[in-house]
Design a protein that fits this description.
By secondary structure, the chain is an alpha/beta fold. The chain is built from 12 helices and 14 strands. It has 2 domains: about 190 residues, Isopropylmalate Dehydrogenase (3-Layer(aba) Sandwich), CATH 3.40.718; about 150 residues, 3-Layer(aba) Sandwich (Isopropylmalate Dehydrogenase), CATH 3.40.718.10. The chain is globular and about 65 Å long. The structure holds 3-isopropylmalic acid (IPM) and magnesium ion.
Length: about 350
């Protein structure tokens, strides 16, 4: 089994070192190969997703991705910006199904900005369609307006679109995921305004008929944004399009108060996947050894489960992370009084130690 390791920028390299350490403690045979991606690749090769990196990713069974981006690249032309690396990987590998769990760990209830009773025990899963919608829709661009409120003025436009097969396949992913959980799917749309999302709602409803054991409801995205902070525990699986999922998954992540804890998976139809923490490259704390590596370590667990068929190893990692939290180890982002503040490397070491212990 081959794993492409793409640390990227900012804290990406620091957290990835810990994730690789954890991977190597497991008695499993993997071939690991690293490559530059994002700003780091742009500096070295003039492109955020060089051909060699893309090829490595294509040839791998799974991709472990750190984070990309830095403010210093904000002025580059769009196709050279670090974010294009992740968009390019999603598109080129067909990674259409994005899993973003938002789980509130018992010991971290106090880290949320919401009242503890609202989020204690929170365990929701956002499934975001990742290769369509207005993020990839053509045509897009700038031009002179032929009509509208200001004919003759400079304007910009993007295209929101979804085809039936794109909606069907992500809906199947959501219903199947729900079957392994509480068997409830909420499909998030904006059917009251957008043609694209009336179609979305219709197609998800049709697919839902094939899953009579799963309860399906529909919610407008503005209401979903509100319900997520009002009563987040009411949700089980949320499924939605690329843009709404981008926004709602950040909101859901922050409910737990600890975005540094949340992994994510992006899968294609052959279960090849890209695994990354839900947080970004955090250039403000890069190089200081203080970033939380747990989201990346938990991404390793997701990778073992979804792409590498090693569910036992995944469970071991997840248990080790819980042990480390129970023992009071905290990086700065999840620190609270009475716990022990540690840096990135010490946190990785603590997980490795917990894994050794669980081996017996
Ligand atoms: C995410 C990020 C990306 C996205 C950016 C970096 C392009 O926000 O993974 O949610 O918008 O999808
Ligand atoms: Mg986002």
């Amino acid at each position: 089994m081959k794993i492409a390791v793409l640390p990227g920028d900012g804290i990406g390299t620091e957290i990835m070192a810990e994730a690789v350490k954890v991977l190597q403690v497991l008695d499993l045979r993997f071939e690991l190969e690293s490559a530059l991606v994002g700003g780091a690749a742009y500096e070295a090769h003039g492109h955020p997703l060089p051909d060699a990196t893309l090829q490595l990713a294509k040839d791998a069974d799974a991709i472990l991705f750190g984070a990309v981006g830095d403010w210093k690249y904000d002025k580059l032309e769009r196709h050279l910006r670090p974010e294009q690396a992740i968009l390019g990987l999603r598109k080129n590998l067909g990674l259409f199904a994005n899993f973003r769990p938002a789980i509130c760990y018992e010991q971290l209830v106090g880290a949320s900005s919401l009242k503890p009773e609202l989020i204690a025990g929170l365990d929701i899963l956002i499934i975001r369609e990742l290769t369509g919608d207005i993020y990839f829709g053509q045509p897009r661009g700038r031009r002179t307006a032929a009509d509208g409120h200001f004919p003759g003025a400079e304007e910009a436009f993007d295209t929101m679109r979804y085809s039936r097969p794109e909606i069907e396949r992500i809906a199947h992913v959501a219903f199947q995921a729900a079957r392994k959980r509480d068997k409830r799917v909420t499909s998030v749309d904006k059917a009251n305004v957008l043609e694209t999302f009336q179609f979305w709602k219709d197609v998800v409803s049709e697919v839902g008929l094939l899953y009579p054991d799963v309860a399906l409801d529909h919610m407008y995205v503005d209401n979903a944004a509100m319900q997520l902070v009002k009563a987040p525990k009411k949700f089980d699986v949320l499924v939605t399009g690329n843009m709404f999922g981008d926004i709602l998954s950040d909101e859901a992540a922050m409910l737990t108060g600890s975005i540094g804890m949340l992994p994510s998976a992006s899968l294609n139809s052959s279960n090849q996947g890209l695994y990354e923490p839900s947080h970004g490259s955090a250039p403000d704390i890069a190089g200081q050894g203080v970033a939380n590596p747990l989201a990346t370590i938990l991404s390793v667990a997701m990778m073992l489960r979804f792409s590498l068929n090693q569910p036992q190893a995944a469970l071991r990692i997840e248990a080790a992370v819980k042990d480390v939290l129970a023992a009071g180890w905290r990086t700065g982002d999840i620190y609270s009084e009475g716990t022990t503040r540690v840096g990135t490397r010490a946190m990785g070491d603590a997980v490795v130690a917990a894994l050794h212990k669980s081996k017996g």
